[in-house]
Structures are given as C-alpha cells and as structure tokens.
Amino acid sequence: MFSGPLRLYEARANPHGADDSRLFLVKGDPTIASAEEIIPAEGVLLPPPRADLDLCNCHLKIFHINDLHGHIAQITANGDQPILSRFVSRLREVRLRYRDDPNTAVLAMSAGDDLVGAIFDELMGDNPDSFALHAGYRLYSAAGIDVAVLGNHDFDLGTEVLSQAILKDAQFPILSANLINCRRLAGLYYPAVILVTKGIRVGIIGLSTPAPIRHSLNTNPQITNPLLVINNILPALRPLCDVLIILSHLGNNLSSGSASVRVVGDRELARGFSPGSVHLIVGGHTHTILNEQGLAVDNIVNGIPIVQAGTLGRYLGEVDITFHRGKPAVSHARLSQTANLPVDETFERESVRPLLEMARPLFTRSLGQVISHPDLSTYAVRNEFATGESALANFIADALVARCHAQGVAADFAIVDSSVVRSGLPENELTFGAWFRIMPFADVLRIIWITGEQLKMLIRDNAHRLDLPGEPHTERGFLHFSHQIRYKVEIDGCQTGMCVREIMVNGIPLEEQLDISFRMVCTSFVREPAATWEKYAMRTLDIPLMDIHQLAYRDTHLFLRHELVAYISENGGVNEKGGAKRDGRIQIIYEGQGS
Q1: 56 to each of 61, 147, 245, 564, how far by Cα in Å?
Q2: 526: closest CA among 543, 547, 545?
Q3: Does pLDDT of 150 surpass 70?
Q4: For tag attachment on the chain, is the N or C end more exposed, with fewer CB atoms within 10 Å?
Q5: CA distance from start to end of the chain
Q6: Domains of the chain
Q7: Which stretches within 129-169 are classed as H helix?
Q8: Distances (CA, A) of 311 to 67, 68, 338, 409, 527
C-alpha cells in the first residue's frame, strides 16, 4: 500500500462486472493518520452526483458471497456438483433484466476467504514457481465479481503465492484498509474503492480480521486495529460517495463461536458510526447465516443493516438499496439457497469444467488403505472425539511429531483437537480428495514452548474439557497428545470434579521435569473453536483454564495437510503401524471405578 496522503486513481473495472461502471482506486496508508481528504491524481475526475438522484427512484442491487474456501464446485463420487455456476445464473439474470434500466445498478462482491478448503487449492502450488492458478479469483473474474476483501485464510499459502493469484487471476480490486507492511503485496491491494455504476457512486472500504497471517521470510505483514483505520479513512471517503459500504472480514461479533473475532466484529463496528455515514456492512469470517427470511430487525445495528451469507457457497446474498428523495437505505435483504438456483450451463462448460479437469487427477490419487476401527468413523469424530482416547487423534498427533523430525523441526510432543478434522475416514481406500474433505484447511504447524510446570497446568485444564456421560456435548477444545505423554483422569461426575495424576513424559514422571522447557507442536488453529465455551467456563463454572495462545510460539513452514498426506503415504495408509490405535495414553477413571 502506498504511503503519504490518500489519492484517487482511475483503473479498469472488471469487464465482466457491473454495466456502465467506472472504477476509482483509493491508494495510500490510512493506518498512519486521519485523512482530511482524498486527492485525485493528475487528470482524474470523479463524476459528480447524479443531478436527478433526488428526483427519481434509483436502485442499487448488491449480490454478496463470503467464505467459499475454494468451493466453486464440488467433485464427488456421484458426479460434479455446481456451486459458483448457480450464483452466476442468478447474477446474470438480474444484470440482463436491468441492463437497459438507467436507474438500477447491480454490483457483486466477496467478503473474503476465497481459497483454502477445497481440492482447487492444490493448483496454487507452494511457491510462485509452482503456481498455476487461483481457481476462485479466476472464476470470480469471469463471473462478474466487482470487488473482494482479504480474509485470514487468503494468506494461508503465503503472501508470495497470494501475490501471483492477484496479479494473474483477479480482474477486480482486492481490498484491505488495515493490512500493513506487506511488501509482497505492494500495489496489489487497496484500502477502498469507488465504483460508479449507472451514475451511482458507491464507496467500499475493505477490512480484514486482525489475525496472525502466514507470509514469506524477510517480511512482517500485520493486520491492524480496524476501528482506528476506519475512523481515519471514512470522513475523507464519505463525501465522495452516494452510498458507502463496509466489506468486512471481521466476523459478526465478539461473541461469535464459529471463528475467533478479535478487537471488533461487525456489530461492534456499526455502533461506532455516526448516523448516515455507512449504509451497509457486508460481512464474512464467522460463517453466520443472516437474513435468510428477509432483513431481520436484530441485524440492524445503529441503523446499519449487517448481512452475511454463511459458508461454502450454500447461500447467495442479495441486498436492495433504494434512493428515496436522494437518500439511500436498504429496502430488502435475503439469502437464496444455492441448491435451489439453476445452473448457468455456459459458464459451467466454458469456465468451471476446464478447472475441474485440472483438479480431478489430484482428487482421485490414492494415499493407501484405511484399517477398520470405530474411532475412524464420522460418527466417532462428531460424537466421541472428546470422550477419551481416540485412535484417529493418536494417529494424527504421532504423525505431527514424526513429520517435524523428518523435516528437521525439533518437537518433543504434539497436541491436536477436533479442529484438525471435519469428518471420519472412508472404509478401505483413502484418496487425496477424500482426505481433503476430512482436513480441508491449510493450517500450518506451530511450535509452542512450554515448561513442565505449564504442561501440568495444561493437562489439568484439559481434563475439564472432556465430554462427560449424560451431558450435552459442545466444543470445549479437548486436546489429544502424542504417545510421549501419558496420564490418568479421575472423574467424580461433573466438569469441576477432575483429578489428574501419574503424568508421564517419555516414561519419566512430569514432577521430575517441571523446570524443563519442551517444544510442543500443534496447528495454527488449535482451540480456536472453543472460545465461546471458555468464556462460559470461566464466568459461570469458575474453572481455572489455561490460555495456550499466550505462550511463546513460532509458526513453521510446514502445512498440516501436506505433512499428514506424506505420513499416510509413507505408512501405506491409516493403520496401526502409523499409530491408528488406542494404547492407553489417557485413562479415564470414573468415581467408584477401580484403576
């Protein structure tokens, strides 16, 4: 991003996007100081407001998606399932209907996390040399997306790869007003844009969630406080726009449990705006389904409607903004279920299927055989993962230590929680495509430094997170350990009645190793989904919990999914040889039950 005062430049809008549109890019760094004005570059002239805006009923229609995570289509054993082609059918239908209507404009936008989670990620490669294409950005360009914001997972493959994706495949502007120090992406993203379509000037500010991001060596990109940034840029941008939209990947609110929301969510953000300064917040990150039955009153905060369309392409969002006497307001918002939309067969044939054929050989590649074990089933993953020892969790935890050693990364033991898997394993043959469904996200491996005393606290904390008989299960962040750790838990029947004893590390009592510093390997997403329960446990149950995110750590260059694929291939599949078995590393003893 450029330093100095904010300036306005004209650029080429997506040729497949909004009809009769012009694109103006805001360049500069709004994180430094409050901007009094945005200065047009030499020769740049932003159109004035429409002379008839307060006389006619103008309409702005917004289509929005978020958190597709690469699910532009789904390859299954029963055939390919279109997703993005269904969005396109609806978008093109509406754009065709209003193409010759001078008073109705149509924009389309994505609120981030446009990759990581589908087989198409493999087409991105691991570095610029192996980069082939960004399936999401390439198809969004052809589909007519007008603008997108950077989400946290858009950085998962590194800023070098992301720069190639933007350069080669994004024919629309990429936004993030609060991303700084990102040398690899310099000149490739912007804090805001103004899209002028059918004479309506639409300002859009992009905000990314302040989460750690993966990047290349010798760079230190950061995502800063969105509240500070929005207050710096909004006063200067608002006078240039008829409508102002925040395109946000912050998450719905600080209490959201589906993803970690830091500093501020969309709801908290909306409360800080002055009346009339912002007309709409299009959100993402927390995978929240908002306004499925129409705009709900509780999704209007401080007079600002907030919209979000779930995740994985299950919904397409639509918003209508109507001008009445020159004043814009959201008049309608709703979600459409993607499965109920028709397929644009031309787009599917010409744009999507060539990418499907590129990805299909990756999908069908065999990794080996899966042994028969109840812990490997989807039922066990969803219902029994936190009830005690798990053969699947043992396999994954042991694999992390083994792969760290193989890659020259020092690690003493590993922890994993339910966030590492989304489902169980198929019987018999395991393909790469099936493993992608089991472990879709590109979490990196993280080394945490932990003392023996802190490890004792962590294991005691972990006992409170077990799913107990007779209690509803909820995500508490229960950890499974690799085979280097063994211990027993005595339970007297409730979450607060736990006693941990006989903790052993590499066959030696932990009590004899309290001053030793260990290197614990985990994923970069460990215990993130447990945030809601942790707040409840500390506030209501008065359980002393340990925040492992406060411990010193270092993210490695190793991807969780890549290392697990390598480990499975080395062992010929998921089997006892690789650790897919119960070996008594954790023993649960209930009151009245002998040891």
Answers
A1: 16, 27, 22, 60
A2: 547
A3: yes
A4: C
A5: 62
A6: 7-33+58-359 (3.60.21.10), 367-590 (3.90.780.10)
A7: 135-143, 159-169
A8: 5, 6, 11, 34, 20
